Amino acid sequence: MSEKFNVIESFGSQVFNDAVMRERLPKHIYQSLKKTMNEGTELEKSIADVVASAMKDWAVEKGATHYTHWFQPMTGITAEKHDSFIAPSGDGKALMDFSGKELTKGEPDASSFPSGGLRATFEARGYTAWDPTSYAFVKDGTLYIPTAFCSYSGAVLDKKTPLLRSMEAIDKQALRILRLFGNASVTRVMTTVGAEQEYFLVDRDLFKQRRDLMLTGRTLFGAKAPKGQEMDDHYFGHIKPRVASYMIELDQELWKLGIYSKTKHNEVAPSQHEMAPIFETTNIATDHNQLTMEIMRSVAQRYDFALLLHEKPFAGVNGSGKHNNWSISTNDGQNLLDPGKSPQENAQFLLFLSAVIKAVDEYAPLLRVSVASAGNDHRLGANEAPPAIVSMFIGEELENILKAIEVDEVGEKAEKQVLKLGVSALPKFSKDSTDRNRTSPFAFTGNKFEFRMLGSSLNIAGPNIVLNTIIAEELREFADRLEQAEDFQNELHNIVKETYRDHKRIIFNGNNYSDEWVKEAEKRGLPNLTSTVDALPSFIEPKNVEVFVKNHVFSETEIHSRYEILLDNYAKIINIEALTMLDMAKKQLLPAVIEYTRMVCDALAAKKCLDLGLDLSVEEELAKKLSCLEVQFVSALNKLEKDVITAKGVCDVLECAQYYHDPVFADMQALRAIADELETMVGEEYWPIPTYSDLLY
Ligand code: ADP
Ligand code: MG
């Protein structure tokens, strides 16, 4: 760690950002690049060449020798293939070269990335295309160029392309609405995201002694530590020196890459922490969150920590999530989810709010699909995370206003007039009243929504693709109605009124963690899709396919391919976890139990041998209990082994995933329960892997 770190000077020092572009590019080149960035126009080849050359010179000064097209295939992590800038100079020497074509287009072999049948293996080629709206940066001696990834047939193979398309969809529809409100100056509407990232740090040496952590990112066995999180003494608690140093260096690395890391603190579970950045445009926030997770991992190594981004590394203590704070803003800096002050602003806000309410109710299963993963199945519906039921919190004040509009009720004030949108002003909401429901999966927090169902390792592109698309769709419907209306104010009033009347079932301001809510939600007809395999089939329901197709975000084939990839991914994860469990059970845990039992039996025999009439009951009981559990353990192990073999042979991708959920995943839980009980009985020096106490404290 450097002694003196100048934040202002270092911030963004590794980024080819606007300031660098303005300084290094001829004015007309800079302007046409900006035009491409702002309006999505194509970049001419001659201009791309100049940009590439300037970018290369800058990167070489920063120590780069290579460049890479950085992309986000459907594996959930980022991918990169490095090429050096090197080119023959003709005299046996080399020069550093980088053309506009190399900047704007790459051709990685696409055959090993999941495509869900979109790309026949003989058509292995895919290409990457520069996303000029996300800045290039230098890391580890390489110039990183954020790109989108497609197959040659044009089918999308990544997460960035549909995200950009969904941003276009909402831009288009929101602009229509703004025009209707007489807002002529705005030329672009963007969604913004701030992704709060939770993570665990564990000691690297201990981590290496746990095959489950190494291979699956979570503990597959482990009895609860005597102390868990019940004292609530970790949340916002004092940060241990080694963790504090880690956090300092993490901030510095993130800042250099232009990531606005803002808040850091200890989380609820022991060894759990959080980092929250300042929000940015959604595609940049997405790139930055992927980068944040990578940097977190590499900095952890320098402090002999292992970073755990899994949603549930430890049973019995909180898992990790990622809160996706989402809003819509304009290129002139207005936040469209800010209630505003004037009646006009209030009315516009209520219309956008209505679009969100309608979208979340009509497409709740899609939001659920967007956060579905094997890892997140451990969280949603468990104690600390929002349930698998999608609902939204808007706060009492705001709901009272909608209620009043629904019944055309006289406003509270003495004026005795009907609350007429666009005419009378709304009362000012206090931020506090909208900020405090921590149990809601989708909460309005004053000027943005916080979607809290995301798991910590998720690429945030997925949920934001869904949010942008479904809200664009509702805005389109509203814009259609308003454009044709004879009386704008009247139609506006009707839309807000009808939306609340028809969709208020999605609003729930109470405790989402309670059992009563599960029953109440069922009465309201809200879906409760408790696992990934329950949720995923919603993805391909006709209504959900239509919303993507209509808004040009996914084609029908692309949806089906993604659906298959997600199911296949689920099956693969459970398969790896099951095999790791079997491996540990057979080679580590069972031998330990046998060894310990032998020691107990030896002790028993020794006592007996003395023939002094000593009480043998303790050793006898222990030996019996151990050997009884041992038998159960082996039979659970055999059942798991048999079911995994059967699962592998199931051809249909949905049935296969379902089989991995039940019986395979159920078998794993049964095996674990027995192992965890054995762990509490077997002597400490016999137990072959670090315990929860070792790992968490
Ligand atoms: P807290 O939750 O600690 O009160 P904030 O509500 O200010 O803090 O912010 C939480 C997260 O939401 C941060 O990442 C912040 O940048 C983000 N955020 C704030 N405003 C917006 C917005 N308009 N759009 C998207 N994210 C936002
Ligand atoms: Mg939060």
What this model shows, in words?
The chain is α+β, with helices and mostly antiparallel strands and 697 residues long. Helix content is 48%, strand content 12%. The protein contains 22 helices and 16 strands. The protein has helices spanning 7-10, 18-24, 27-39, 45-61, 100-104, 160-180, 204-208, 211-216, 241-256, 282-302, 343-362, 364-370, 396-406, 461-484, 488-503, 515-524, 532-535, 542-550, 556-610, 617-648, 653-681, 692-696; strands at 66-70, 82-84, 86-88, 94-96, 105-106, 126-130, 137-139, 142-151, 189-203, 261-266, 272-277, 280-281, 305-308, 322-330, 442-444, 449-451. The strands form 3 sheets. Strands 9, 10, 11, 12, 13, 14, 15 and 16 form an 8-stranded antiparallel β-sheet that branches. Strands 1, 2, 5, 6, 7 and 8 form a 6-stranded mixed β-sheet that branches. A two-stranded antiparallel ribbon has the order 3-4. Helix 12 packs antiparallel against helix 14, helix 13 crosses helix 15 (488-503) and helix 19 (556-610) runs antiparallel to helix 20. It is globular. The two termini are 25 Å apart. Adenosine-5'-diphosphate is lined by residues 192-194, 196, 276-279, 325-327, 335, 445, 447-448.
Oligomer: single chain
Percent helix range: 40-55%
Rg, rounded, reads: 28 Å
Distinct compounds present = adenosine-5'-diphosphate, magnesium ion
Poorly predicted regions are: 413-418
Largest sheet: 8 strands, antiparallel
| Structural class by sheet pairing and helices | alpha+beta
Which term fits the overall shape?
globular
| Strand portion | 5-15%
Number of strands: 16
Cα distance spanning the termini: 25 Å
Given the structure, what is the number of helices? Answer: 22
Mean pLDDT: 92
